[in-house]
Amino acid sequence: MPVNLADGSGDFYQIDPLALRSVAVFPGGNALAYGGSSLGGAVNFVTPTAQTAEAPNILRAEAGTFGTWRLSGQVSRIWGDWDALANFSHFSTDGWRRHSRGQYDQFNANVGYRISDTVETRFYAGIYNTRQLLPGALTLSQALNTPRIANPAALAGNQARNVWAERFANRTTVRLEAGQLDVDSWVIHKRLYHPIFQVIDQDGLTWGIAPRWTHSFTAGGLRNDLVVGLRYFAGTNDADQYVNLRGSRGRQTLSSVQRAQNYEAYLENRLWVVPTLAVVTGAKALRNEREYEDRGRGLANSRGAIALGRTYDGFVPRLGLLWQPQPDLQFFTNITRSQDVPDFSDLTQQVRGSTNFVPLQAQRAWTVEIGTRGRQDRLAWDAVLFRSNINGQLLQFTPAFGVPANTFNAGTTVNQGVELALRADLARGLAREGDALTLGQVWTYNDFRFRGDPQYRDNRIAGLPPHVLRTTLAYTQPDRFFVRPALDWVPQGAWADYANTLRANAYVLLGLEAGVTVAPGVSVFVDARNLTNKRYVTDLSTIADARAAGANTAVFYPGDGRSVYAGTRIAF
User: Fold this and answer.
1) Cα separation values, 402 from 69, 158, 195, 262, Å
2) Whether the predicted pLDDT of 305 surpasses 90
3) The TonB-dependent receptor-like beta-barrel domain covers which part of the protein (predicted)?
């Protein structure tokens, strides 16, 4: 069931890591089985139920640097054909930087009922409250020399991002003689109060329904796995803006309505031509409608409603091979078409001091990937090489501090790189049976470039560093304790501008995690980060050319200084 709103935007504040059972990443065309058709793919967050919960009761408490503390609790019960689970988390922090205090409250629950041996239904509910002060971006010099300060404009406008959201959903599963039918339905209400350059005040509702049929059968003596799905979801969002008077509403400057409708049909088929080799085929047809109604520049100075919009149609096929010579060994290759539709944060932009609808094109790409994943004795790995040829890539640049980034369609771009994860048990049985010394390595290589662009030639696309590496060395005694030092290394910082004249710094961070099981179901843990108190840039906003007259170079967000967190977890 999509967490995204109807226009495709999403809010990760609605994802509580402590309320998840597992997370699976389906990059690119691998997301087709879930209805995904974007270049990036899909992330599947799996929530626990009372049937799969680790324990009927779980409590967790932690506290640490910068006035940070978190409390979380989960309870689950089974009564015959009924089961229920509820999870609540509260997180608050004063923040490392000035004007960065935040508070997050997240409630998730689900109730399931087995109607018969072949039919069951489950209801989901979520309530999410976010209150976050924004310290704003800094220049590179400020981020590296005085990183704890806030941008003066963020202080003057008391800039913040406050969100209240509710989410209700149902999944009903029917096991048929031929396969399984899942019918999902959902509704999401979101209220956003976001004082930045102006006060952005929005109230929206998204709803949808999605049947999905899966079946494994034999065709001509060959095993065949089939997924067929439909999805309709829509939404409306009242989007108003006001003059920002130190975080409060002043004169209204915009009254508008954003409407989105989406019609999608997809299928994916795996035909095992031999027991170890599957031909993967699939396609998705989609129609995305975006409508924008500008009701005037404020109630006192209305110019009459103006209706604008754009419709995006698409067909995205997929063809691949999957070779699995052993249960724990796979090799795969795919060629996939993708289409990304701009959301309303892309389509409504600040142009000459006012908010306007900009009818951007969809981003379309062909992606080729080849990879392998597996586990052999002491070694486990996941490796992918990919190349995407993109037309109309949706890129952003920041026109001024506090103003939402404007989006444009680039010409021809190429995104290519490597994603590699390795895990190796260097030694076992060092001190006792079952223990292990394990080396972990993750490496991401990003070579994202323009191709013959009239303005940016073959420059690298700004916003992300070429290499990101994370190395861990863990010693574990199962059910007793673990210690895991970690090294994060970015050899070159990301370019901040598309002209490739200003970039963030390179850095190395050291961290340490450790935990001890003090009794059955009871553990204590510590998480120490940035032990050397390195000053570095953790994120940035992109700009066109840092050398241009009047260019806003306050686009860097400094990473937190040295911090230590400790806590306990009790399951019973």
Assistant:
1) 29, 11, 9, 31
2) no
3) 198-531
